[in-house]
Amino acid sequence: MEIDKLVLKKIEYSIKYHADVSVTLNTAYVPEISSSKYADIIGLPHKKIKEWCIKGALTCRRLDNNGNEIFDWRINSKLGRWYIDPSKRIGEF
After folding, report:
1. In whole angstroms, what is the distance from residue 68 CA to residue 80 CA?
2. How far separated are the first and last CA of the chain, in Å rounded?
3. 53 CB neighbour count, 10 Å cutoff
4. CA distances from 73 to 10, 27, 37, 50, 69 (A)
5. Relative to the CA of 59, which of 16, 25, 38, 90 has its CA 20 to 30 Å away?
């Protein structure tokens, strides 16, 4: 049985505007989530999330396509993607 589109929209709205991301993601163990997916979940622009990663407001690390951490990402800012630890709240280290 397929869920009606209206029901899906209501679920999406509830998650987007009423769910605490850290609580929601912690109910199912998710060690890391991409910054773009995190932005989608909390409804903020991806650029803002990347800025928070760079400034240290979120617990993030930069990974290449093979899952290896990039420690010198400032040399070439195009390398890799930001991944966020969703178990930590904004500003928590």
Report:
1. 9
2. 44
3. 19
4. 39, 31, 20, 13, 9
5. 16
Please give, one letter per residue, the 3-state secondary structure of the chain: CCCCHHHHHHHHHHHHHHCCHHHHHHHCCCCCEEHHHHHHHHCCCHHHHHHHHHHCCCCEEEECCCCCECCCCCCCCCCCEEEECCCCCCCCC
Q: In sequence order, what are the beta bridge partners of 88?
A: none
Cα–Cα distance, 13 to 7 (Å, whole number): 10
Strand order in the sheet with 33-34: 33-34, 81-84, 60-63
Whether the model clears a pTM of 0.90, i.e. scores above it, the answer is no
**Joined tokens for residue 82:** 């930001």
pLDDT tens column, 41-85:
888 899 988 888 888 888 899 998 888 899 888 888 788 899 998
- CA–CA dist 29, 32 (Å, integer): 9
